[in-house]
Amino acid sequence: MNEHVTKKRVSEPTRPTRGRADLERLRRMTEAEIRRTAPPELADLPEDFWDDAELVVPTPKQAISLRVDEDVLDWFKQTGPRYQTRMNAVLRSYVARKGKPAAASDRKRHRQRRKSA
Question: What torsion do the CA atoms of 61, 65, 70, 76 make, to the nearest 10 degrees?
């Protein structure tokens, strides 16, 4: 019987999985390595590009059941992975554009005024 042991080589991932950065690997890299491996669209950023950047902490999401038209869902799915995140972004931009909704008591008064007019 052959007692040959096979070890599986585990290589360091070259790309983050599911959008997560490998911070330990990044901390070990030199600035030159970071520049060399960065996407081409980042090559010509001005030095002060990140000076006014603000940290945006993602808000927790709430799982819901939402009924949407089939063609709308298909369109978002065709845009690729994370389509639900894009749907949330569209809804967020709508909310930002429309502003804060009226309180329930304000809506009730508005309906009563319309009925009496």
Answer: 10
